[in-house]
Amino acid sequence: MSKLPSRKRCIIAAALGLASGVLCAWLASQKDPAIFDLKSFTFWSIVWNRYLIGLTIALAGAYRFHPLFGFRIVPALRGAILGAIVSLALAFGALITPAENAAQIFWLTVGVGALYGLTIDLIATKIGGEGKGLLK
């Protein structure tokens, strides 16, 4: 018996995370074209972070109820919260770079991460399901 959520949910969430990473890097390159370069550390940081959102959401789909408090977890809220939390690692990078709008980049990164997380969780739940049934 596997302890990981179903392959279908994992593949969907991971693929959407990867796609959102490439999209996010492309959008960021509209301001700084050097970002959308395969040799750029920033490019890979963005892509990896968004991919990690997808993986986290894939695994979290096994929980329909909060493990400590027992309340029902709505997929959109679960995805948004996880997306924002995972995005914090990327967002803090904006604060350590000498940019005049670092705080704005920080909050935009967290907000967009929450939006990606919300979208990924809704789609992964709709197609791949959620709950303990994923653990079979």
Mind explaining what this structure looks like?
With 136 residues, this protein is an all-alpha fold. Helix content is 68%, strand content 0%. It has one domain. The chain contains 4 helices and no strands. The longest helix has 27 residues.
Q: What keyword list fits this structure?
A:
single chain; 136 residues; mainly alpha
Question: Could you provide a short overview of the structure?
Answer:
The protein is mainly alpha-helical and 136 residues long. 68% of the residues lie in helices and 0% in strands.
The first-to-last residue Cα distance is: 6 Å
What general outline do the C-alpha atoms trace? elongated
As for the number of domains, it is 1
Return residue spans where pLDDT drops below 50 for at least 5 consecutive residues: none
Q: What is the rounded Rg?
A: 16 Å
The residue fraction in helices comes out at: 55-70%
Strand content: under 5%
> Order of SSEs, N→C?
HHHH
Oligomerization category of the chains in this entry: single chain
Q: Mean pLDDT score, rounded?
A: 89
Specify the number of helices.
4
Largest sheet: none
Question: Class by helix and strand content?
Answer: mainly alpha
Q: How many extended strands?
A: 0
